[in-house]
Amino acid sequence: MTGTPRPRAVAFDVNETLTDLAPVARAFTRLGLGPDSVPWWFAVLLRDGMALAAAGGAARFADLARGALAEVAGVAGHSLPDGAGDEVLDALRRVPVHPDVMPALERLHDAGVPAYALTNGSAPLARDVLDAAGVTPWLTDVLSVDATGHWKPRPEPYHYAADQAGVPPGALALVAVHPWDVHGAYSAGLVTGWVDRGGRPYPAVFARPTVQAADITGVVDGLLDLSAV
Asked: Which of 43, 76, 180, 182 is the most buried (most CB within 10 A)?
């Protein structure tokens, strides 16, 4: 976007943006729900987290995940075995990062731009995943919305990330695969980057991202190409 300054720090959404949920799909298959139920489950999880955020409340990510699993199974007429929620949460702890993540973080490091993770989940869970993938040395910190008591896309988590990075909101970029997250960050005054992994249309009701590309590396390159001030 013309006139937008190059960010002085970049925060990345975690679930689906940095991570590949394929192990969760395998867990759903073992539970008899099938991998196609994963997007439905994740959408229910996000719906409930955002509804609480809109009402000024919050809940633990794990509790939302369990509740969403129960809803999906119930609507499908499927009985879950004991420990099904634990199995899905364990699968979340074993998800890999997408192959474009490390090159993107290396480019930010080489450019002297600090990178952060900002998750709607718990910081310990996100850190475990990112540690296992070997990317935490390239991150300045792993941040969770738990510190604010509100989920994204409320403004508090984005402003918290800017505070932790030591920059004003307009000097922080948020990179996400979710258009709602991009819109939330824009509304909070951040620079935004949309990762369009699936080639789907960007919702017209949301503010357009500052930059967009088919992978994280392309988004980071676009952010670094913005004019420095």
From this structure: 182
* Pairing mode of beta strands 211-213, 172-176: unpaired
Residue 218 lies in a domain: yes
CB 220 within 8 A of CB 194: no
Per-residue confidence band for 1, with pLDDT thresholds at 50, 70 and 90: very low
Domain around 59: 22-92
Is there a single domain that holds both residue 148 and residue 220? Answer: yes
Last residue of one domain, picked from the residues 30, 59, 92: 92
Residue 96 Rama label (left phi>0; alpha psi -120 to 50; beta)? beta
Let me know whether 132 and 193 are in one domain.
Answer: yes
pTM of the model: 0.93
SS3 for 73? helix
pLDDT tens per residue, range 178-214? 999 999 999 999 999 999 998 889 999 999 999 999 9
